[in-house]
Amino acid sequence: MDKLILDGMGGDNAPAAIVEGAVKALKDDKNLYLIITGRENEIKAELAKYKYDTSRIEIVDCPDVIGMNDSPTEAVRNKQSSLMAAYWMLKKEDDICGLVSAGSTGAIIAGGQLILGRIRGIKRPALCPAIPNVNNGVTLLCDCGANAECKPVMLCQFAVLASAYAQAGFNKTNPKVGLLNNGTEEHKGDPLRQETYKYLSEMQGINFIGNVEGRDINYGDVDVVVADGFAGNVALKSIEGCAKMILATMKKQFTSSPAALIGAMFMHGAIKRMKKGLDFDKYGGALLLGLKKVVVKSHGSSKPASIANSIKNALSIYRNGLIPKVEDMLAKVDLDNLIPVNNE
Amino acid sequence: MDKLILDGMGGDNAPAAIVEGAVKALKDDKNLYLIITGRENEIKAELAKYKYDTSRIEIVDCPDVIGMNDSPTEAVRNKQSSLMAAYWMLKKEDDICGLVSAGSTGAIIAGGQLILGRIRGIKRPALCPAIPNVNNGVTLLCDCGANAECKPVMLCQFAVLASAYAQAGFNKTNPKVGLLNNGTEEHKGDPLRQETYKYLSEMQGINFIGNVEGRDINYGDVDVVVADGFAGNVALKSIEGCAKMILATMKKQFTSSPAALIGAMFMHGAIKRMKKGLDFDKYGGALLLGLKKVVVKSHGSSKPASIANSIKNALSIYRNGLIPKVEDMLAKVDLDNLIPVNNE
């Protein structure tokens, strides 16, 4: 039995969507055991709506909920909140393998750093979503918001973290790593990019293919895109906005005339498949990489299917040994030797 | 008669697409006079394919062409190239109002800075494309690649430049200006963003609405998005890649079954209108703002219609007084007083 802990109160649709997603995940995986933290009476009321295996679910009553506007450091101090209580259990109990939360990103990062703790040697955790690409696969974008300011050593570690994720999460054997830059030539970018380029080129065990541009995230041939959290966040959200605009434009045009409406009926299946191919939630949230255990941040607006996917994702990468893989790769890379301390 | 100068040899499809676009632009605007720089015999051979008003076109023979791989500073030294010869004429001849080129971005920026020169007080020119948004309008993204590293004063000037462009190019009376950041809260981002936020809030004549995120470029309610050239470039190219992926996925799905094919026939008009709404070239290239005259960079892969649009765009913003508008706004803003010299 693999034990996961689920923040029952995180996200816009909590606890209803969280509980429904949890029940779905329990049905899909017979070796999953779930601990849900949150307001026991609310969660029980939701659970009462479904049939499920009661021996594989457990509720830990937490009276408090972190609001989306609470400051992350304040949030960490409240041990009674569903998220921080989950982090404390995750830290203390060896047999819990990971955490899923749709709560505030800032609080999830703060709790990860301050309660659970980082893998030995890792400077900062990083957020890493899997973004659909034109090859019917995904591109991992790391970091996309945890660290607005970065140093070269952090970007090099993001390459390690996301390469391990590409292996453990998506079965890539030698994932291609690109550095997000404003052009593909070696000399491109600011000093941060130029230095990082040099170190990434020399790193053992990293399949560095050079600089990549924003367009390569969706339309290139790269598995891992390394970015500081500022640029990664800009890229991720620009892509989200573009996809939303195009789908809105499509909807408007496809209902704009009787002919288009008839056409849309014929194309129902194709449109559905297309939307599925573009579903950013399909891969189950973003990983918060660099921590001692698997932590998955599900989108704040997650519906039950996204929660179930996040749970499935967390379980699968735990089983595929994400954390030992990161430790192995870090040892091989030997960043301390590669990067002078004053350039870290 | 308004005189424009056109780089006849810039871009992947030169001179054929440039000449065809020029002829189209001459037909569309009876008050346009065009000077085309480049290899005279090649340009004449292309011109011979069309009927046009020979009294409104002139060729200046330039034997050299700047390659996409030539370094910009090398390129500037070659006065015989179609682009740099055009810049020298633009600088020297008062009655030429602007330049259009589909050549290398680096060379266009270098020539603009080193030959034509900046508007008095402007620290650096900035590239500013118009990006389609969900409201059937455009969002101006400034800078998107000319300056990988920026200081607050530069970002403040980009706000002035793009606000003037929104007025002269798109008839916006009080354009909304947002600062591209990794979140909307006031304290978000690195010190560059935090300082710039403060100055933008205090600037006279700028309608600053606060921080915006990547998604607001396509899907928000903002006219001008201010960014350093690195983040702006990442955003622009992420959007390009996303749009390409979605159109490719659509094409694949819409030809995936007989039903979808029939549907696509019915939807032909709607699909065409949708693609037109998403056409990034519709607004005629990116402006290189901050120079003494109007300079438009057309996409390297520009087809004749894009070249014609770039010419139309250059002409229209010249006629609407872009340069005097920038000078007026700069004088009102009085950045020298607002920003301490050591924070520039």
Polypeptide structure, described:
Two copies of one chain form a homodimer. Chain A is α/β, with parallel strands linked by helices and 344 residues long. Chain A has helices at 16-28, 40-47, 72-77, 82-92, 105-116, 152-170, 191-202, 215-219, 229-254, 258-266, 268-277, 304-319, 322-333, 335-338, and strands at 2-7, 32-38, 57-61, 96-101, 126-128, 130-132, 138-142, 176-180, 207-212, 224-226, 286-289, 294-297. In chain A, strands 3-2-1-4-12-11-5 form a seven-stranded mixed β-sheet, with helices on both faces. In chain A, a hairpin with a 5-residue loop joins β6 (130-132) and β7 (138-142). In chain A, α1 (16-28) packs across α12 (304-319) and α4 (82-92) packs parallel to α5. The longest helix of chain A has 26 residues, at 229-254. Chain A is globular and about 60 Å long. Chains A and B meet through α8, α9, α10 and α11 of A and α8, α9, α10 and α11 of B.
Number of helices of chain A: 14
Number of strands of chain A: 12
The sequence of SSEs of chain A as H and E is EHEHEHHEHEEEHEHEHEHHHEEHHH
Task: Give the overall shape of chain A.
Answer: globular
Oligomer: homodimer
Taking the sheet with the most strands of chain A, its summary is:
7 strands, mixed
What's the overall average pLDDT of chain A, rounded?
91
Distance between the termini of chain A: 41 Å
Which protein chains make the most extensive interface, counting residues with beta carbons within 8 Å of the other chain's beta carbons?
Answer: A-B, 61 and 61 residues
Estimate percent helicity of chain A.
Answer: 40-55%
Strand adjacency order, main sheet of chain A: 3-2-1-4-12-11-5
